[in-house]
Amino acid sequence: MTNVLLSAKNLSHHYASQVGCIDINFDIYPGEVLGVVGESGSGKTTLLKNISGLLQPSSGSVKFDTRLDGLKDIYLLSEPERRLLMRTDWGIVFQNARDGLRMNVSAGANVGERLMAIGARNYGDIRNEATDWLQNVEIGLERIDHYPETFSGGMLQRLQIARNLVTKPRLVFMDEPTSGLDVSVQARLLDLIRGLVSQLGIACIIVSHDLGVMRLLSNRLIVMHQGRVVEQGLTDQVLDDPQHPYTQLLVSSILPV
Amino acid sequence: MTAISGEQKKSSRLKEKTLDGYNFAYLDDQTKRMIRRATLKAVAIPGYQVPFGSREMPLPFGWGTGGIQVTASIIGIDDTLKVIDQGADDTTNAVNIRRFFAKTAGVETTENTSDASIIQTRHRIPEAKLKSDQIIVYQVPIPEPLRWIEPREEETRKMHALTEYGVMHVGLYENIAHFGKVTTSYNYPVQVNDHYVMSPSPIPKFDNPKMDEMPALQLFGAGREKRIYAVPPYTKVKSLDFEDHPFEIESWSECCALCGSSSSFLDEVITDDKGSRMFVCSDSNFCANRRAKGHKGPGLPRKFEIKDIE
Predict the structure, then answer these.
(1) What's the pTM?
(2) Per-residue DSSP letters for A82-148?
(3) ipTM value
(4) Which residue in the list B64, B106, B223, B281 is annotated as catalytic?
């Protein structure tokens, strides 16, 4: 059996008197895609921030399998170590691509930035990497020196994915990667994410309220309701045979096409 | 000269030359002490920007208030001051700051680089090699080299502390991607002593190599942004670059029209409205010294003729 990549134990977060998420437990293994679903306000994004090092949880632990020392609590790492982890082994794809990109530098520089941040100092190599990755995410090479402002919503999201995957992370966090895109663009993006994830063997934690997205991408599913995990299991199992009343409600409220 | 007669000379010179009702070199002693403390810290941590309580000066921010405050707190009655602006001793900014210190501190002033003990500068480092008993004070408009890419002060401080300087190369990457070469020509970022990335103030990149292992102490004052930083003598200063696009300085196809120098930084001067131009040394003192020694350049440009553009 392979080692756990990321492990959350008894994770809770409170915003003053408000509840973020309560008592979350899960493990994720290398190459696995874990989906987190739930309605707005159910604590999905709080959970994602907690486990991606952006927001320290009120209690509980988040451990990550670091390359050097094995499983370590990310909030007990020193700040330089945690920041290094965030720009090498992790990737974070934001719901709003503008949050994850530098809008005032070209697409190529956006992709190359993470390489430069870990010490790449050869322009030719950086340029080649950027070219490869733009091809991987189906952005035309004639756009490499254009500014992200001139890109469409779908292209921005694909550029953000390229920017994150360029350092070959082992774990990528995605917060609603397809929301705000129209259906055909969504389909293409999903196809792309699915291809890249399986091809590179990247583990992925995807937060979404879209069950269709989850069915397509994730191996396992966590269902959240009012800050708690109410059900978890294999995606098909959860979606085809929901046990908890809230999951049943969620599955039955998908609009038929 | 004995200590006593030195003191007498000093006090008589102070009475004679400085303005009544003002402290020596304008700033009050508490302020000078505060600035000296900041300066000492800056020298101890090469390239680190030390915050200080910048004062109102009798000229606007942006005209060299940071440099003036640093100079005012390190200058003594025995110092000889040189002030340059864009390399020249006779431009408005230089003339006024020199006169300011002549009036308020009664110090000797000079235009000759090798005679000066303190050189305050805007936009240039003199061509003559500086010595270990000299101090050069730079006027700095924006001290933070990371500012254009990272607007948050909290974040830039963290990046400095952790030497996270990958983003500095994003700027250079952009230059090469759009223009085929690094086009940043002034305020070219440097890394000091293998740690802090520092803005060298808006000097041309031609002057960057002079900062490396310079025998003189280099002090930087930013009045509006309230920062002081420093490069101690004989400290490594490296301009950022890519392996396959190494750092390069400007070069010119012509020599100085007045002194014939081909190794100094040249300004292009338009001489009429018909397209004639000449190149002259930006360091006026360097050029004058060469001419005094008998060097001659090609002189004023010949008349512009139509065949020049054909």
Answers:
(1) 0.86
(2) HHHHHHHTEEEE-SSHHHHS-TTS-HHHHHHHHHHHTT---HHHHHHHHHHHHHHTT--GGGTTS-G
(3) 0.86
(4) B281
